[in-house]
Amino acid sequence: MAQLRPSTIAGHSGDVSLVGAVVGKVTGDAYARGGMHFVLKDVRSANPTRVSVLYRGSVPDLFKPGRDVVLEGTLRNGVFVAKPGSLVTKCPDHYAPKSSKT
Fold first, then answer.
1. How far, in Å, CA of 35 to CA of 21, rounded?
2. SS3 of 94, please?
3. Closest by alpha carbon to 56, among 78, 42, 38, 40?
4. Residues 37, 54: contact at Cβ < 8 Å?
5. How many domains does the chain have?
6. pLDDT digits (tens, 9 = 90+) for 57-67
7. What is the four-CA torsion angle of 19, 45, 60, 86, rounded to 10 degrees?
8. What count of Cα atoms within 13 Å lies in the side-chain half-sphere of residue 9?
9. In terms of Cα–Cα distance, which of 99, 98, 69 is closest to 86?
10. 44 in a domain, yes or no?
């Protein structure tokens, strides 16, 4: 499955993996019929491209604006419709182990 960023998803059809940083306000309810809505941008990039996301299913405890996430789904009419339960948060770089000095 192709792994894309908000700036590279335009024109892709079928199921893809979308990686991005959550920006702005998160609205709705992931367990309600209308789902949860939020926006993703490219991780650590000045690229202004944003993609609206519709998600239903379990939400990781670490999910919040500013967090890097990965979802699977399909772009439909400009909105990324994620597969239920596909939302995964990614750990920020500062949680990575420090390299050892030699």
1. 19
2. helix
3. 38
4. yes
5. 1
6. 999 999 999 99
7. -10
8. 31
9. 69
10. yes
